């Protein structure tokens, strides 16, 4: 049993040092909880691979893990002693040093218990059934100093964060802990988990009454945030409507979706007449876990009331290329999802300055669309770069070179790849990304450069320089620069192309006429303004 500790006898600096150590310990615990969460997510995906579906009959003569058909005499399979399911030979894992085996799910469950230490708590619960989780002295101190205190606690100074840095990077550490904030600034709904901290986006300073009265903020990431995007869900007969409102704050550049209620929804489990609905949103084409927002789950109702506000940080220029997807789901047993309907709204045609569009409206739910509208240009993220044409004698040299031999100019094309965001990430929400640059000269000669790989980052910030030497302004006017972003694969596999953009004479035709003309204007600005940096945001296709 932890004993109470009084820090009042210590000096102020000593108390601050103790609380900072406890905060660092709390960060370590949060990182450990995130590691355990990833292990359990992987185990859950393995279970769903062979899970029985509600709309399909379970075949007894097939493998319970890979659904491979088993024979009558040969390849009959065997029953796993852990889960009592019949599995084929390829879904068995033999334990080290023994002839015993387990199926893939039971073996992974055993590994999770070993790596997380759950086996210890299970054995302790058998010997001490009434023994719960004991609170530590550090935990008591953190709770005690959440109350009003005369101690002036100075939190550790956070590292500087640039404005271009993506605000949805997974695993980003917060600058100051909740326990070290004053009571009047503390949000009782905030969690100390760094992953859940990403949902606390800045709100509008003067929101309308619709978006301010009694509405909760929706959550961002759940343990199984990618399960529905991988096809692990069932379908129901889509019925009913959903009521929500949309508002955009130009001051904070935040898009707010206020989910109010649904009515006449279909049952997620028709036989049991059961429905546990919740709402999930994406800004298409971004389907990553960082781009997902969702409400809480309402239990046992087909007419739920949510009263929650979901927020996105997005620039006004990007709204023209996005579609808002609002979908309703049922949370079933064993965390199985059932699709109940969706609404897709093209934001390019939405008038955010009109106050009438901010009022609540009922939208009929529709079945899942196989292919979304082609009128909105699809993008795979954005790449931020800076470019400069470096001449040895300044801007006058370019004017003098119009009638002279430009081959004598020792010019360089300098390009700084700053970072990228809204990239199509992996199921775990990360990327091992790098950038390739290819400058194609008029004689079809290609100059290739490559940036270093940034591992496990969804919004990478390379800040890497590409320098193409020995090129003249006349050559660059007839050349094209292609920038592509890649995801580094494992050994023996090909790298995955995330998207690319082309600057120069050929332009980029993937994003439509307006985007192509804009890229050409930016390229001409780089060539006509030597020795000056030009910032560009390229839409990847």
The whole-number mean of residue pLDDT values reads 75
Report the count of strand segments: 22
Question: Which CATH class of the domain at 381-392 and 409-540 is shown?
Answer: Mainly Beta
Lateral strand order in the biggest sheet: 5-11-8-7-14
Q: Could you tell me the strand content as a percent range?
A: 25-35%
**SSE pattern, N- to C-terminal:** HEEEEHHHEEEEEEEHEEEEHEEEEHEEHE
Please summarize the sheet with the most strands: 5 strands, mixed
Description:
The protein has 541 residues and is of the alpha+beta class. Among the domains are: 67-128, no CATH class; 241-364, C2 domain (Immunoglobulin-like); 381-392 and 409-540, Sandwich (Immunoglobulin-like). It contains eight helices and 22 strands. It has helices at 12-49, 104-116, 118-127, 137-144, 316-319, 395-400, 473-477, 513-528, and strands at 78-79, 86-87, 92-94, 101-103, 216-217, 233-235, 241-249, 254-263, 277-284, 293-294, 305-313, 323-331, 337-346, 361-364, 382-390, 412-421, 433-440, 446-450, 464-469, 480-487, 496-504, 534-539. The strands form six sheets. Strands 5-11-8-7-14 form a five-stranded mixed sheet, with no helix packed on it. A hairpin with an 8-residue loop joins strand 9 (277-284) and strand 10 (293-294). The model is unreliable at 53-57, 147-207, 220-226, 371-376 and 394-408 (pLDDT under 50). This is Synaptotagmin-like protein 3. GO terms for molecular function: neurexin family protein binding; small GTPase binding. One of its GO terms (biological process) is intracellular protein transport. Keywords: Membrane, Repeat.
């Amino acid at each position: 049993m932890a004993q109470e500790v009084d820090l009042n006898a210590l000096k102020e600096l000593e108390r601050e040092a103790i609380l900072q150590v406890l905060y660092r310990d709390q960060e370590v615990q949060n990182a450990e909880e995130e590691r355990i969460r990833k292990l359990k997510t992987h185990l859950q995906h393995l279970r769903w691979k062979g899970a029985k579906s509600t709309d399909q009959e379970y075949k007894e003569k097939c493998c319970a893990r890979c659904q491979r058909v088993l024979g009558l005499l040969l390849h009959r399979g065997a029953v796993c002693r852990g889960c009592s399911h019949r599995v084929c030979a390829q879904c068995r894992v033999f334990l080290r040093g023994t002839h015993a085996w387990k199926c893939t799910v039971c073996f992974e469950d055993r590994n999770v218990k070993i790596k997380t230490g759950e086996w210890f708590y299970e054995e302790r619960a058998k010997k001490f059934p009434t023994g719960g989780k004991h609170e530590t002295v550090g935990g008591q101190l953190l709770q005690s100093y959440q109350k009003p205190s005369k101690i002036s606690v100075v939190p550790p100074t956070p590292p500087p964060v640039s404005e271009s840095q993506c605000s949805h990077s997974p695993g980003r550490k917060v600058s100051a802990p909740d326990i070290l904030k004053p009571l009047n600034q503390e949000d009782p709904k905030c969690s100390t988990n760094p992953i859940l901290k990403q949902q606390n986006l800045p709100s509008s300073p003067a929101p309308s009454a619709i978006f301010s009265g009694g509405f909760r903020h929706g959550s961002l990431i759940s343990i199984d945030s990618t399960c529905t995007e991988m096809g692990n869900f069932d379908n129901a007969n889509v019925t009913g409507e959903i009521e929500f409102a949309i508002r955009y704050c130009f001051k904070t550049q935040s898009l707010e979706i206020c989910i109010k209620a649904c009515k006449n929804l279909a049952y997620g489990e028709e036989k049991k007449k059961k429905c546990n609905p919740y709402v999930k949103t994406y800004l298409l084409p971004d389907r990553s876990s960082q781009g997902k927002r969702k409400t809480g789950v309402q239990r046992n109702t087909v007419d739920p009331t949510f009263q929650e506000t979901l927020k996105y940080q997005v620039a006004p220029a990007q709204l023209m290329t996005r579609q808002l997807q609002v979908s309703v789901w049922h949370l079933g047993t064993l965390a199985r999802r059932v699709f109940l309907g969706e609404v897709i709204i093209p934001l390019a045609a939405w008038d955010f300055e009109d106050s009438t569009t901010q009022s609540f409206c009922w939208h009929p739910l529709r079945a899942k669309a196989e292919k979304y509208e082609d009128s909105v240009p699809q993008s795979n993220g954005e790449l931020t770069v800076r470019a400069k044409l470096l001449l040895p004698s300044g801007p006058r040299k370019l004017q003098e070179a119009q009638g002279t031999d430009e081959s004598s100019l020792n010019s360089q094309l300098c390009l700084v790849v700053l970072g990228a965001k809204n990239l199509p990430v992996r199921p775990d929400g990360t990327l091992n990304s790098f950038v390739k640059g290819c400058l194609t000269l008029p004689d079809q000669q290609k100059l290739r450069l490559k940036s270093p790989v940034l591992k496990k980052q969804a919004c990478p910030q390379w800040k890497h320089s590409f320098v193409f030497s020995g090129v003249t302004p006349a050559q660059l006017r007839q050349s094209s620069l292609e920038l592509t972003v890649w995801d580094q694969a494992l050994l023996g596999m090909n790298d995955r192309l995330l998207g690319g953009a082309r600057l120069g004479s050929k332009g980029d035709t993937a994003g439509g006429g307006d985007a192509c003309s804009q890229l050409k204007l930016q390229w001409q600005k780089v060539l006509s303004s030597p020795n000056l940096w030009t910032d560009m945001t390229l839409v990847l296709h």
